[in-house]
Design brief:
Blueprint lengths: L12 H21 L10 H28 L5 E2 L2 H14 L7 H10 L5 E2 H17 L9 H21 L3 H25 L3
Antiparallel strand pairs: 1-2
Helix pairs in contact: 1-2, 1-7, 2-7, 3-4, 5-6, 6-7
Length: 196
C-alpha cells in the first residue's frame, strides 16, 4: 500500500505532495530493484539514487515524528503496562530483574513510572533504539538485534496508541507508512548491493 492512500488531514498540501513524490520514487525503485539480482548490472548512478531516496525518506519520517511530538501536549503520559507485563514476566522466568539485558531493565524501569512515562522520554528512547538498529550507533549499539527489534516494537506500539488517543493518528500513520517503505527499499538494496 502506497503512502498516497493514507489520509493526512493535518499535513499541508505541499508536504503531502513532497511525501507522495518521495513515496512514488520509492515504489518505482522497489519495483526496479525487484527485477534484477545481478550486482554488476547496477550502475553507480542507481546506487546513488537509492541511497539518496532512502536518506530522503528517513529525513521526512524524522520530521513527521518531530511534528507528532510537537502535536502531543507537553507532559502527556504514555501507558507502558503492556511492556511492563512482558518484561516483568521475562524477569520472573529468568529468576529476577537482574538477569534482564541492560536495555530491558531500562524499559522496565520506564514502565514502572507512576502515572505513565512522559511521551517525550518514550520518544527519545525509541529513537535511540532505532539508531542502534539502523545505523549500529548510539548507546544501545551493542544490544543484539532481536532485543532491539522487540523493544522498539513495544515502544512504537505504546506511542501509536498515545498518538491516536491524543489526535495525532493521521501524522503517525503517515510516518509509519513512510518508514515501512524505507525499510522495504533498504532490504531490496541490501539484497542487490550488500550492506552499506
Amino acid at each position: 500500500q502506497g503512502l498516497a492512500s493514507i489520509p493526512g488531514s493535518k499535513l499541508s498540501a505541499s508536504r503531502k505532495e513532497s511525501i507522495r513524490t518521495v513515496a512514488q520514487r520509492a515504489d518505482d525503485l522497489i519495483t526496479e530493484l525487484g527485477g534484477t539480482t545481478d550486482k554488476a548490472e547496477l550502475s553507480e548512478r542507481i546506487k546513488t539514487t537509492i541511497t539518496s531516496t532512502i536518506d530522503g525518506m528517513d529525513r521526512q519520517a524524522s520530521d513527521l515524528y518531530d511534528e507528532i511530538g510537537a502535536a502531543i501536549p507537553q507532559g502527556s503520559k504514555v501507558d507502558l503496562s503492556s511492556a511492563n507485563a512482558t518484561l516483568g514476566s521475562m524477569a520472573e522466568t529468568y529468576g529476577g530483574k537482574q538477569y534482564l539485558e541492560p536495555l530491558e531493565k531500562r524499559i522496565l524501569s520506564l514502565s514502572e513510572i507512576d502515572g505513565g512515562v512522559p511521551y517525550a522520554l518514550l520518544d527519545k528512547e525509541r529513537k535511540k533504539i532505532g539508531q542502534a538498529l539502523r545505523k549500529m550507533s548510539g548507546p544501545y549499539k551493542d544490544t543484539d538485534s532481536g532485543t532491539l527489534k522487540r523493544l522498539y516494537g513495544m515502544l512504537t506500539d505504546a506511542q501509536e496508541k498515545a498518538a491516536g488517543d491524543l489526535g495525532a493518528d493521521d501524522l503517525w500513520n503517515t510516518a509509519k507508512a513512510l518508514v515501512s517503505q524505507r525499510k522495504e527499499l533498504e532490504d531490496q538494496s541490501i539484497q542487490l548491493l550488500g550492506k552499506k
